## 1
Amino acid sequence: MHVTAGSGSPPDHGPCAGIPVDQLEYMRQILDRVGDKWSTLVIAVLDSGPLRYTELQRDIPGISQRMLTRTLQQLCQDGLATRTAYAEVPPRVEYDLTPLGRSLLDIVNALIAWASDHQDEIRAHRAAVNRA
């Protein structure tokens, strides 16, 4: 994208063509959120239905408690997930996808499948570049 600050006009071609300049920053923020590795994995894991925090943490290896908390807060803030607290002893909190979040599942699952299918090829390319 070759839009300079204050240029006042959207790019002539590409995915941002036709998007008003004043909306481009917000579009980038949305893409940052839904394209973030942790958001992608949380959305994919929630495909199976509502889960508790500890279940999410178990099903997403490598995510820290801080990052899971932050990711869930952001997904809820953007209307992609919900947080439901149940008045039980002990208290129970579940996270689930909203219809908006579910609308991302095909894209997220395809991206994860692509990464899985091509990881060996990418690893080989990285190794070749590092050897050069």
Note: The radius of gyration is 19 Å.
## 2
Amino acid sequence: MTALPAHGAPAPRRSPAPRPERRLRPAPQPNGRAKPRLAYAVIALGGVAVIVVAQLLLSIAVAQGAYEIDGYQVRQAELEREHQKLAEDLDRVESPQYLAKNAEALGMVPNANPVYLRLSDGAVLGQPTPASGGAAASAPLVPNALIDGVPLVTEQATGETPNGTTPGEGAAAAPDAAAVVPPPADGLPTPATH
């Protein structure tokens, strides 16, 4: 039996197992040729050149697109002005004053004594009298200064619009030709459009 060492006595140490010695030696030489580093440099520079050219082409395409968008916006503004001018012309010619003047020019007069027909029994209500009128027939209408320079239906040439242009000529006509209206002497002021 072996005796255990006392608490205060150190335990015997084992000697470590001998390690094999390590020696440094050079890495083995490669059997083939070394890889050329010039090819990697050429590939890298070629990649950079391709990226620069692609970025330049994209910048040109974006700039061209911006010019096209600007051209479309200018054309849209022109078309909006033309639409506004035509809407004003339409408002002018569909006014009650213009319609009344055209009706008078064509020989129509308003009937001050209308006669009604009762459909249930076919009775005529009212006294039929011939209509008479003339320039005084449209006198109760409020004057419209916007139609002062607009020719009547009887004064227009065939195929001419009320503003004096032929259809299809609107875009080629001067934008101020029919849109500028002088202020009336005895009516409401009207804005001059351009």
Note: The first strand starts at residue 116 and ends at 118.
